[in-house]
Amino acid sequence: MNLAWWASGSRVVLWDYLLPAPNNLTVLADMEYPVTSVALVKPRRNVYQSNISWVLLVVTSNRITFHGLHQQAAPSNVASGPQSQPWEIYDSDLSVDTTSTGEMTSVCGTDDGRIFMCGARDGCVYELVYRRTESWGVIPFVTRGARYELMNRSVAVGSSFYPTLFGGPKHDLIRMVAVDPKRNVLYALSNQEDISVFYLGLAAPANQEASLHFSAPYTSKNIYTAALTQSPSNPSLPNKQSFRIAGLIPTLPQESRYIHLVAVTTAGLRLYFTFFRRNPYNPTSPPYPTPNGAPVSLDLMFVRSPPAVPYDAIVPRTDPAWYGRQRPAEPQPPQGYSFSFTEVNSATICSSDFLIGQALPKTGASAFSKAAILACSPDLGRLFRYNADQNPIPGTMGGMGYSALAPAQRPPLTESWTILPLDGLTHGIAPLAQPTFILTTPDSASVSSEMLTMFTAAPAQYVVLTTSGAYVLQHRRPVDVLRSLIERSNRSGNEDDVQQFHDVFGKEQSCAMALAIACGNSLTLRDWTPPSAPAGQDAGALMRYSVGFEPQLQGQGVEMLAGRLFQRWGGHPIRLRMGAAQDDGTMLFSGKYQGLSIYVGRLLRPIWKEKVATVVGGKTFQTNVTMSTLSQVQTELTNLNLFLEREMALFEIFTTDGPADDVARERELASCKALKALVSRTIEAIAFVMLMIDFGLHDVMMQCDPRVRELLPKMSYEELLVTEQGTEAARALVNAIINHQISQQRSVDAVSDILNQRCGSFCSPEQVIVYKGYESIRLARQEHPSQRITHLQESLRQFSQAARALTPEKLSEYCKEYCDLGYPQGAIGLPLVCAREWDAFEEGAAYFAADKPQGDPRAYRYAQREAAYKCAFQSLKLLDDRVLQAADPAVADADRLRNAAYSIALQSDDEIFHYNLYQWFVDNGQETRLLELHTSFIEGFLTRPPPVLWKHELLWQFYIRNARPTEAAFILDVMAHSTDSSITLEQRISYLSRAVSNAKSLSAPVGEQSPVEFLTDLEERLEVAQLQAELYSQLQQVLGRDPASGEALKKLGSQLWSITDLWQQFAIPYDLDYIKLLILHVSNHSNLNLVMGTWRRIIETAKDTAVKQGGAAHDYISDAIIRYGQRLYPSNVAFPLDLLLDELLRYQYENQDTASIPSGWACRTLTSANVEWRTLFDILESVYLDHSSPPWSTPDGQAFLRMEIAQYLSLWFLSESGPMGSRSSAEFPVAFVDTKVGEYLNQQTSELGRKILLELSKSLRRTY
């Protein structure tokens, strides 16, 4: 709040030191008792009304009084520095009586309103708790009343009521407390110089009251001994009696991960503490953080001594800071002079700066009338020189290495310091504004933040309150030092100091700082002055100190000199070529380019990784980066951009202090231009975001589709600027802005002008063209149907021109408008244009041609194509539905529009669109419609992977319709052998049959096969497939309802198997004898032993069946032979006729007396199996004539065969002369039979046989 206060008796004076007199003083009078302390704390939640931002506590000897303070929020301006804002103070009528506990001191508070203090009488730590209560009336600016409680946190309940009963308190007296509001811990300093840390629990959520958690303390005792152990020869530690701690300063989490507290002694000694546990076996290793950040100990990490103060250090110096080099020889001090830090009474640490207040002795008197401020900060010059030389610089650390906090290679602690003498005694030191922190990597030093922020953040400033007034001290950054050195060298003509600065910081960093000055960075060209200070005001009460006090050059003079340094220091690029002549080599760009890139990077750093927007309360969109930050970054980028436009020749002119390379120059110039383009784009992007904020960011976001609303809070400025997704989001946001402004009754042209003026290149004017196209549609809707075409054609032209600015949602909307207005050219043509423009570089087409690989980034472009195609299909569907819904006479018009739309779609030369259109037909059950189309893309679509069944079904029909039987046969064969388990065995056989039919028409080769070879191959596969069908039927009969049959049948019917697989996997395992014979027949594999063994098993099986069913065995055998023989005859492989006849004759002969087998049974069985009569007779006769094997070699066997021959000849005649026979002698061998009858009549010994033959002879003569 920029307030200072002091007490005088029972009055408190509040001083706003940023306001001019006399309006800067406020007096609080009429206190009941003398004021002993004043503190400014945050209000406790849900007690004060929301407009109360601070609570001023006025502490007297017997009472604590509460005062509410309200201050308006100030729009931060980085360049102008801190500004005072009007504030008001209210008496809340809330006070706390401390008579029973005594006077309170060292009051401090947390961010959530907890208040701590220590008792001056009993040395206890107290917490003041005040809450709402329903019993009180309403206190001004307090909600519903409040009650308070003063809780003693040092001793158990009840013991503090009788402090003297047992001889006084039983604990160390606490004389100072300090709060770390960020880590929620409380530090307490005792009169024994011991420090304790208390954990206050996790911070409460914003809408809840603070908890009252207060943990047991962890105490660091014997601090003097620990400090002396680490720094045994330290002059600031003479003895324990003089060791006294003057202040406790909690560090900010951004400044250190491990150092939590810095204690400053009256001798200026800095003691660094951590409350994390350390490794006792490795003291140099970092402490172990706790999961919730709670303290678990309090250990002294290391000690830092104050510098030795020379005589001239206590007077103002007129030379700039001596970065990275030794000070010049100092003058000798006067006789009797001595100075040391002995009376430090105030200190602060912020942004790596450390300020200590020290009283100066006044010679000849006992009182002090002056103070000295020791200002220390990291010596960035020495650190940069260390990094460049890789040689550590010795530092005074009291024996403790810096590696205790970081890796061993970290640079040592080294700092520069300045002594500033001030009038009056020092009462307090505080930062004038909150510091700016840059997130760094875990292993990077926090001191680097100044190098990162000095171009976008004002220098750190501190206010020192003394008995003479308030002094504002401003930190000198490296860029400020360079500016002072430039001014000094201009006056003196000596540039040694400037060159020394360059040598310390190096070429790149020096060029970056020179460029910042040259292009007019607003944070480097002027010093801070008190706001609202009248001209010519005496600086007695309000002063600013910095290292130098020289008059400044005019801005343009400094810019010109800095530009010359930038040119001179920049050098030229170099190309290193190590290999062949054609190798481009490695480019080492000049210091000018490096300085430019560093400067651009640091200007962008405050916003680069920040999200564009944030959601507050889960529903309200707000900017994530403040307007002041955006404005400051934009201002500095604009200054840089103007400088580059004006002085771009600086990057084309190089010094002649080394070899030059044209290729390197061109590369560097191109890189510089790319950086300039980034700067220009960023300027307009910031302007675009600020425009959204001006229009109402939340209202604009609500005009976006949900995808953009979800995306923007996750998108950084980097992604917005350099990614395709950012470009798409910007287009959507422009549409949202236009929609929002149109809803506010603003014209499209007015919005277009605003966008073009502020961010013309970042926001493409294509969005405006889109809205002009929509305006043409609106005009067409208002016109008579006969007059619409002109407006519709104009809208299509405008939409096509700005197709890249359209979104799928808008495209769908416009297509529907075209359908409603009867304009198929737009409903189909516009999506095709968008598909082409959305994939302008054919990335989506390449992704499609590569069969859509997984994880390919080109999939996004293909998805955009599909989104455009989908709009075209929606138009076709809409027109189809309107034909079905239309009634006469509107059907004709609807059908005409639909036919025109399909004609436009089919005339497109976009192959990917055709493929998607055909797939759309299939998805809608209209796949047969593809056979009616006559486009050049049908065959490619049907042959494109994956080879699914429905594509092949359409493809072979397509080939048939186009008289291409070769391709049809090939596809049918592929379908028959497909691994698709949904195809049944009957379908596969059908496909093969069709393939054979088409193959018979072939005239051209199929691959490497001739037409005849291909046909033969198909026929053989068809025969095997038919065999597989028979096997399936046989297996079904054999397995019946066996549970295992389902899997076996499913396996058999899932594909076409080879004949070997059918034998090995089915015929053999399931013992299918007939199938075995069939496989042998189809494969033409001759193995008589195997075949006859199979037939004998068939006969045995028939016998077993006859026994089970009670029938005649010979009937069952005959049935099996006839059934299988009709399928296998005349195969000599599977149906060896001579062997089968012999087998049957033997069975008949052996069972003629017991089985009642009729004569001629064996021959009748074989003739029923379609064996020719003459063929069978020849075999029968050969059996008779062969007397070699029994029983046919015996008389009985010969007689049996003669009877069978007689019976066979009679049956032969009857079959030919019967009703179904032929009486033609040309077909029936009458003469042959008659000859055989006569021949066997003479040999026949059986009366029955002779009778049969005589009767047959008569019948032959009678018939023929």
From TrEMBL:
Stored InterPro entries: Nucleoporin_Nup133/Nup155_C (IPR007187), Nucleoporin_Nup133/Nup155_N (IPR014908), Nucleoporin_Nup155 (IPR004870), Nucleoporin_Nup155_C_1 (IPR042533), Nucleoporin_Nup155_C_2 (IPR042537), Nucleoporin_Nup155_C_3 (IPR042538)
Domain Nucleoporin Nup133/Nup155-like C-terminal: 590-1244
Compartments, as annotated in UniProt: Nucleus
Domain Nucleoporin Nup133/Nup155-like N-terminal, chain residue ranges per copy: 2-469
Key words of the record: Nucleus, Transport
GO cellular component terms, A-Z: nuclear pore inner ring
Gene Ontology terms describing biological process: protein import into nucleus; protein localization to nuclear inner membrane; RNA export from nucleus; transcription-dependent tethering of RNA polymerase II gene DNA at nuclear periphery
UniProt GO MF annotations: structural constituent of nuclear pore
Family: Belongs to the non-repetitive/WGA-negative nucleoporin family.
PANTHER family, A to Z: NUCLEAR PORE COMPLEX PROTEIN NUP155 (PTHR10350:SF6)
Protein name per Swiss-Prot or TrEMBL: Nucleoporin-domain-containing protein
